Amino acid sequence: MKLSGVIYTHRITDNRMSGSVCKNLDMFGRLCGDNAAERVRLVTTMWDKVKDRNTAENRVKQLEGNFWKPLIDEGARHQKFENTPQSAWKIIRNATGDPEALLLQEELVDAERRLNETTAGKALYSQFQRLLQEQKDTIKQLSDEAKVQQDPVLVKELEAEYKKIEAQLQKTWEEVEKLKIPWLRRLMLFFAKRTRSHTIEINQP
């Protein structure tokens, strides 16, 4: 089933782009692909809560010229949601048009790929790998600190934190293994049918 429109929302009251927001935006670009970008509406919300209109407009310029630029270059457009039914319907009417398959849909249906073999799945795998390395580094740091501490209470706290992160590490490792693509399957994918769409990568700070 192709989609007539895709809406991505962002609170205009947010004064910074956090790491998680940037990662979600990058994943969104990888899900959509360039062919479906024209059906994407980047909608800013919470305009009724804005105290300084000039500051909010400057945030829009920053979003359009930086974080959203790869999507806008492929045809996505920004619209404001003014918290009224009229504004909502205007966004919906402008977003809908000739249905277009998302890159994720093309990969799953046309190219017959598994979820972990899609562009979005591979990006998620990379994120898990980075998280895995961060957790490994934290565990080593906690272990080293516990060895040199003389305070038994602090040692106990460090050991508790060590066990907590170790459990998270194991869970992350299990998720990474689920997304891992066997080498023979990777070879088959190299010669498999290609998609019409291409991924949209968002620059992250």
TrEMBL record:
Keywords: Coiled coil
Gene3D superfamilies, per the entry: P-loop containing nucleotide triphosphate hydrolases (3.40.50.300)
Coiled coil, from the record: 125-175
Keyword Coiled coil among UniProt keywords: yes
Protein name (Swiss-Prot/TrEMBL): Uncharacterized protein
